[in-house]
Amino acid sequence: RTSLAFFSCVLTYLVETPKALSMAAIERFDISEMPAAENFDISDNDTQVTIGVIGDANSGKSTLLNALLCDSILPTAATSCTSILTHITMSGEAPILRTDHREVSGASQVKKEINRLNEAVRLGPGAGRVADVAVSSAPRASLAALGDKTMKLIDVPGHNEILNLAVRDCFRVVSRLCDVMMVVLKYDAINTESTRSLLGQLEENAPHVLALSSESSKLVFVISQCDAVWTGLDDDERDGADLVQEVKASFRRFLKKNWGKKYPSIDTMPILAITALNVLEKQGELLDWSLLEQFLGKTHENRSSLRSEVKLFRAQTIVQSLQSELAALMDTYPERAQSVIREKVEAGLDIEASNRRFWRNVAICTAGTALTLGGGWMAVAGCTARAAAVASYSAASSSWFASSAAIASAASAVTAAEVAVVSGGVVTAAGAAGVVGGAYAVASGLRPEGASAANTQVRFNASYEEIMDGKPYEDTLMNQDKVLYVGEFVESRPHGKGRMFWPNQGQSEAIIGEFEEGQFVKGFVLDELEVVIGHFQVIEGKVEVLGWQPEDQVSEPQPCSSCCNAASMASLKKVFAPCNHGSICVSCAENLLRDSSPECPVCSVQVSKIIRIA
User: Fold this and answer.
1) What pTM does this model have?
2) Could you count the other beta carbons within 10 Å of the beta carbon of residue 61?
3) 3-state DSSP call for residue 503?
4) How far apart are CA 6 and CA 483, in angstroms?
5) Which uninterrupted H or E stretch holds 441?
6) Is 3 exposed, middle or buried (0-12, 13-18, 19+ CB in 10 A)?
7) Rounded to an integer, what is the distance from CA 387 to the centroid of its chain?
8) Residue 540 backbone class (left: φ over 0; alpha: ψ -120 to 50; beta: rest)
9) For residue 17, how many other CB atoms are within 10 A of its CB?
10) Which of 346, 326, 348 has its CA nearest to residue 338?
């Protein structure tokens, strides 16, 4: 008992000393709260709602947008002519376009420049790349109330342009940036396979516009060129307006056939028939044009609530999906902790075997002594048995006495579940390599880097005893061969600062923030295209908007603060990470990022990349 007490004291010293050193190391991650509003130069502009205008090539999207503006600035043609994302902010000024380090003004010059950029993206060296251009223009007189720079329209290439490499990515990007979608369909293409494909893309990439809204619809279908429905009809034939109503009814039946009962909002989704060219030329039938203007007016009026609904829907969907993956692995220890547990359990099994040998030899010695006392051949057998036992005893005794106290502790700490985790092959070949983040990375705020960036930022120095005692440590949790979470843990559960990752090829961040008992509680949420959705908190399983939002940095179209000509990144919903400033243009930003230690020109914080803000 005296020997055991002595070895127990020694073991306690050896365990507690590194534990104190380890805790000192962990305490260096004294991470402050997420960036507070006062740390940023936040714009006081009103909430801006963004509407994406999508549809087939030559469906009339650009003509419709021209009809909504005071001047015709978007190219229109019988062939596909849109290849870029054209961000049009409704303002009270004449058309202005800023790009390529120069400013272009006037309707005709803006149209000419947009046409040039479309061709450059379609056929030039940058073909296949998603390109953005910022335009500011006043709306038509009947929509003058929308000219306060709180509504943006984005013209998108036709989704059915299979030869245009940038189209697919343009659609995916714009579906993340927009709060409302306006789908333009040509009157004779409402029931086609291409339209069915478009509905599928909406369902996949923009489910937020299909959710029921408490204020106004976030999805509107516009059937264009409807004047052609009655072209050529004699006066005594059926009324053209009745034919248009039949077209609208036919399309609603098409919607119900394809979406069924999945979306209750189908019955109330606006389906409008227009003749945008007649509006531009101020002649002929206008059909539902006034209803379209009413829809835009209501969207403008309810922009704040619409923005909140979209943000919450998208964040809730992402958080629930990733939280379910995390819950499935809640009792699985992360990578490095598993290695420590495995080593401890394996060492414990070795010592247990040594103990069995020790007590077996003690029994043999005891029996040998009894035989010796019997004399004769019994004495010879007893001496032989004792000699063999002594040889084995000498090998086992030092191991047993040195580790008996540790085994007493380990026996109560290592549960059957933990042993099963260790022996069940949970640890993947990826091990601890190629991961990034954790509390150390979160300290700098919103800095998306990806799961394969910098493993050195994960600092694991926890002992078995610390893990079992619930001391915080940093580690990496894998889900099969993908990184799911990197950050702080308590026992087997994410607890503290950390980040979760998408299982996509780039393993980009999905959540950057704080966790408690394996549950995300607050922080930033990003989609799989690295578009920042916003800053949220979770209370009783419900996602809520939390204070400062990244888009508070996004302002009205302004020229680059460096070259003074091209549109600023903020005008295109792009900013630097992690500071979220976007005062310079994309070209100047890309040049700056080529420096060895690039710094934001506004706040001098070291920046890592350009990200999009939803």
Assistant:
1) 0.70
2) 27
3) coil
4) 44
5) helix 438-442
6) exposed
7) 69
8) left
9) 10
10) 346
Please say whether the beta carbons of 217 and 211 come within 8 A.
Answer: no
- Paired residues of 181 in beta bridges: 52, 219
Helix axis angle, 240-259 to 193-205, nearest 10°: 50
Higher-scoring residue by pLDDT: 216, 399: 216
Residue 220: CB partners within 8 Å, gap ≥ 6? 180, 181, 182, 183, 269, 270, 271, 272, 292, 295
Tokens describing residue 241: 């307006």
Q: Which residues contact residue 94 at a Cβ distance below 8 angstroms, ignoring those fewer than 6 apart?
A: 71, 105, 106, 107, 137, 138
Tell me which amino acid residue 72 is. S
Confidence label for 456 from pLDDT (cuts 50, 70 and 90):
low
How far is the C-alpha of 192 from the C-alpha of 183, rounded, in Å? 14
Handedness of CA 33, 37, 41, 47 (dihedral sign): positive
Q: How confident is the model at residue 234 (pLDDT cuts 50, 70, 90)?
A: low
Buried residues in 465-494 as b, exposed as e (16+ CB within 10 A): bbbbeebbbbbbbbbeeebbbbbbbbbbbb
Residue 346's pLDDT band (boundaries 50, 70, 90)?
Answer: confident
Query: CA nearest 577: which of 440, 446, 457?
Result: 446
- E strands, 174-213, are 180-186
Strand pairing report for 151-155 and 49-55: parallel
> Which SS3 state, helix, strand or coil, does residue 85 take?
strand
Task: Give the Cα separation of 361 and 351 in Å (integer).
Answer: 15
Residue with tokens 């049009």: 88
Q: Calculate the alpha carbon distances from 459 to 30, 108, 258, 437 in Å.
A: 14, 59, 51, 10
Cα atoms found within 13 Å of the Cα of residue 317, Cβ hemisphere only: 16
Question: Secondary structure of 327-392 in the HEC alphabet?
Answer: HHCCCCCCHHHHHHHHHHHHHHHHHHHHHHHHHHHHHHHHHHHHHHHHCCHHHHHHHHHHHHHHHH
Nearest to 154 by CA among 62, 107, 205, 88: 88
* Entry field: residues in the chain: 614
Q: Are the CB atoms for 154 and 177 separated by under 8 Å?
A: yes
Question: Which pairing describes strands 542-545 and 531-539: parallel, antiparallel, or unpaired?
Answer: antiparallel
Least confidently predicted of 8-12, 177-181, 229-233, 475-479: 8-12
- Cβ–Cβ contacts within 10 Å for residue 600, how many? 21
Asked whether residue 130 carries a pLDDT value surpassing 50, the answer given is yes
In this structure, what token pair is assigned to residue 281?
């030329």
- Across the range 433-439, mean pLDDT stands at 31
pLDDT of residue 485: 92
Distance from C-alpha of 218 to C-alpha of 99, rounded to nearest angstrom: 30
> Helical H runs in 514-596?
586-593
Gap between the Cα atoms of 291 and 288, Å rounded: 5
- Across the beta sheet with 49-55, the strand order is 102-105, 96-99, 132-137, 85-90, 151-155, 49-55, 180-186, 219-224, 271-273
